[in-house]
Amino acid sequence: MSELKHYEISSTTLAILPGYHPTYSSKILDLHGEYYCKETPIKLIEQACLEGGSSLEGRRKALKHLKSFHQCPPIPINPLEDLYAFPTCSPESYDCIWIFYEHIHHLQPKLQSTIITFRNQQTLEVPISIAVMKKQISRTESCIVSFSKPKKRQHVFYSDYSSPVYY
């Protein structure tokens, strides 16, 4: 376990979880390791949105306007850097986990949860059904199309997570 005073969300961020720790508010899964941070997951997302050119509230308003997403919307944290994340439940909930779309490789259902395998083969079990997970992924892909440059839109790959999922 590595502790950080501050963590900056980047293209290496896989997921941000609640810390469930008396000292740390966030647990961060990153390509370079696992970190604990005193800042809350929502605070880290807010800071990253500002670094990406808008506030979290601004991103939410834009998405609501473009896509009519009202509950648990994906967030285009920094579209220029292809940083998109989605929450597993209400972002205001302490139990909210933020998943970074670009790193998802494989999904596997497990009772009322889903096991995510990231591209680096690291796994994470999240307490949402595979149906909800697929819905969040689909909404994030729609968000990517809306916030990406027209040239990039040609290259967005709409994943079919039904084929690699093993039941």
Question: What can you see in these coordinates?
Answer:
It contains 4 helices and 10 strands, in the order E-E-E-E-H-H-E-E-E-E-E-E-H-H. The model is unreliable at 161-167 (pLDDT under 50). The strands form 2 sheets. It has a 7-stranded mixed β-sheet with strand order 1-4-3-2-7-6-5, sandwiched between helices. It has a 3-stranded antiparallel β-sheet with strand order 8-9-10, with no helix packed on it. A hairpin with a 2-residue loop joins strand 8 (104-110) and strand 9 (113-118). With 167 residues, it is an alpha+beta fold. The radius of gyration is 15 Å and the shape is globular.
Blueprint of the fold:
Elements: E1 2-4, E2 13-18, E3 26-30, E4 33-37, H1 41-51, H2 56-67, E5 75-78, E6 83-87, E7 98-100, E8 104-110, E9 113-118, E10 123-126, H3 130-147, H4 150-153
Outline:
With 167 residues, the protein is α+β, with helices and mostly antiparallel strands. It has helices at residues 41-51, 56-67, 130-147, 150-153, and strands at 2-4, 13-18, 26-30, 33-37, 75-78, 83-87, 98-100, 104-110, 113-118, 123-126.
